[in-house]
């Protein structure tokens, strides 16, 4: 694995979180025969400390990139501050557009579940001082990344103690999205290319969508937090999974706050997710 320094925030020396450092790494995916980037944020003191750290995987949205969480938040240095305040590592991986973090049965180039679970996480644990166990690992994300976090944690509860979604695509059925017809048609076309023409969207839900895993969420012991803005075009899918989790009596936190599908909302949301995760992660 090749690593290079991405950027170091030392603008405000009186704030200790400014000492957090971010690496840009490249990870080769044998499953897709391509190399993908990720940013790894380390708390101050990491280089000289002998301790190991919990890890948060923070996923981007459908048209995003690995460095979105560093470049697009409305509070500069937010990810660095979170890594510093909670003394942990935050990994922001990059994946293909509109790929939803699943393995496509039709496209070898869309195998992002395998990439995250079997390639990226082992690479991070191999090359960084992590507490490489379920109790010290959590995952969250925005929009498509929220879908990925909920789906991956439901399918692989042996890897994650907690998971979260911010404005997540909790159901890939675009009939529930409040979007223009052109946008819906584009996403439907992309889904058909990745999943086929015969995918069933109605209940019982398919296993390529987060709502298809509510029964697993009930039994796997992963702590869940879900939030969405009241003006978000995906609010119907979030209310749907909330209602399904209530119906099957799955413990979870669900919050609707002012805001839309936007970086100001996600900037506000991230500290809530870190606070939630801090109640479940172990630092030893």
Automatic annotation (TrEMBL):
<dbReference type="InterPro" id="IPR050583">
    <property type="entry name" value="Mycobacterial_A85_antigen"/>
</dbReference>
<dbReference type="Pfam" id="PF00756">
    <property type="entry name" value="Esterase"/>
</dbReference>
<dbReference type="InterPro" id="IPR029058">
    <property type="entry name" value="AB_hydrolase_fold"/>
</dbReference>
<dbReference type="InterPro" id="IPR000801">
    <property type="entry name" value="Esterase-like"/>
</dbReference>
<protein>
    <submittedName>
        <fullName>Esterase</fullName>
    </submittedName>
</protein>
<dbReference type="GO" id="GO:0016747">
    <property type="term" value="F:acyltransferase activity, transferring groups other than amino-acyl groups"/>
</dbReference>
